[in-house]
Specification:
The protein has 445 residues and is of the alpha+beta class. The protein has 17 helices and eleven strands. The longest helix is centred in the middle third of the chain and has 20 residues, at 140-159. Residues 194-371 form the Peptidase M16 C-terminal domain.
Length: 445
């Protein structure tokens, strides 16, 4: 009884804490279509300036030419090269010499650039991001330089990394038509073959104010910040509206198998992957909860079963890799000792079968709710995190206030819905089975 009361009390406390973390913000559009979001928090003299562009790996170069992959990720690097008013190689020096830090990242759906400065350098951050949008220098020297940078990144993070090709192999098989099947980092031969004019055309199409959201968060004065934003970003001309018409995937109705050899591994892996709906849907959020239930920590069902109790696996994981148009749900395991990939698959399938036929326990349900409450609170615990969330919810979900309300969706998910969604998407006839095995290094004479 005491444990029961404690779990209820802890759930209530976290809920109250989460409610207290409401993020206030103001949003509006400039005449050129740039969406602006402002969040004022004067508790520390720090400010984040960030721009999220609605462009990612799914947006191919050359008018969606499948021979021009990796352009968005390439521009993540290229747009640090310099501008008409920032000399080549000076970007990072300017930021660091003014007490700041900066970075960028690209997914299949969006590209995000940001700077963190002492708040007295807010104007510098705004100027730099407006320079990136209005006056970038895109020339052959920069393209050649960043091409080598991207090639080295690909070698280190993917080509020479154990299991580095795993996500790529899953994506290129789960997706038959949609550009999610291509690598976000792209194929190096595609970047090498692209012309300078193709890169310039890509920038002109996607890196325009009406395809971007600017977030300023932290120690700011709202009225002064609005004036600076108008001064620096207002003169940037509006671009053409971006129109997308990606092909729809046909449903997977029969299990299919793929085998991939990786020269960088010694232990094989089994992956069961399912195509799922995009992250704006309620079902995608339920799949988030299912993945946490199955492998979110050492007390999770799959970890306890396969690693702790039966000692059949070195590692096991359930991942809901959610994207805007479609997601991929994957079960992954590495065998221990003489256990086979088939043995691991049977155990994981059995755990999924229980999800599909039985309600998870009330205790497990409360643990799930606690974890998602904590995750929500942590995501909004820093100015940098808040800026990222504001941009992401606006650009990807079309609802900035989800920074405050998405947790309510997770709170409302029922045990019955968890069972229903497991039945709907995690069927054995709707999946890819990938055997990811060591390459045969035997020399052929």
């Amino acid at each position: 009884m005491k444990k029961r009361l404690f779990s209820i009390a802890s759930l209530m406390l976290v809920g109250v804490f989460a409610q207290a973390q409401e993020v206030t913000f103001e949003e509006y559009d400039l005449d050129n279509g740039l969406h602006v979001i402002l969040h004022q928090d004067n508790t520390a003299p720090v400010v984040t300036t960030s721009v999220m562009y609605d462009v990612g790996g799914k947006d191919l170069g050359g008018n969606n030419n499948p021979e021009r992959t990796g352009f968005a990720h390439f521009f993540e690097h290229l747009l640090f090269e310099g501008t008409e008013n920032i000399d080549r190689g000076q970007w990072f020096k300017i930021v660091s010499s003014n007490g700041g830090s900066n970075n960028a990242n690209t997914s299949n759906d969006r590209t995000y650039y940001y700077e963190v400065f002492p708040s007295n350098n807010l104007e510098l951050g705004l100027w730099m991001e407006s320079e990136r949008m209005m006056h970038p220098v895109i020339n052959q020297i920069g393209v050649d330089t960043q091409s080598e940078v991207v090639k080295e990144e690909k070698r280190q993070r993917y080509d020479n990394q154990p299991y580095g090709q795993l996500l790529f192999v899953v994506s290129e098989n789960i997706f038959k038509k949609h550009p999610y099947k291509h690598k976000n980092i792209g194929e190096m031969e595609h970047l090498d073959a692209a012309t300078l004019d193709e890169f310039k055309a890509y920038f002109k199409k996607y890196y325009v104010p009406n395809n971007a959201t600017l977030v300023v968060a932290g120690d700011i004065n709202i009225s002064k910040t609005k004036k600076m934003i108008k001064d620096y970003f207002g003169p940037i001309p509006r671009g053409k509206d971006v129109v997308r018409n990606f092909p729809k995937e046909d449903p997977i109705t029969e299990e299919f198998k793929v085998k991939y050899e990786d020269p960088n591994i010694q232990i094989p892996a089994i992956i069961a992957a399912y195509r799922t709906p995009g992250f704006t849907t309620r079902d995608a959020r339920i799949l988030d909860m299912i993945s946490t239930y199955l492998s979110g920590g050492k007390s999770s069902k799959l970890y306890k079963r396969l690693v702790d109790d039966k000692k059949m696996a070195l590692a096991v994981q359930a991942v809901n890799f959610s994207q805007k148009d479609y997601g991929t749900y994957a079960l992954f395991a590495l065998p221990l000792g003489d256990n086979t990939l088939e043995d691991l698959l049977a155990e994981m399938d059995d755990e999924i079968k229980m999800l599909q036929t039985e309600l998870i326990s009330q205790r497990d349900y409360e643990k799930l709710q606690n974890k998602f409450e904590n995750r929500f609170v942590n995501s909004n615990s820093s100015i940098q995190g808040i800026a990222n969330s504001l941009a992401r919810y606006n650009v990807m979900y079309g609802d900035t206030n989800l920074i405050n309300t998405e947790i309510d969706i997770y709170r409302s998910i029922t045990r019955e819905e968890i069972r229903e969604v497991a039945n709907k998407y995690l069927k054995s006839n709707q999946r890819l089975l990938l055997e990811y095995v060591p390459a045969d290094k035997t020399e052929k004479k």
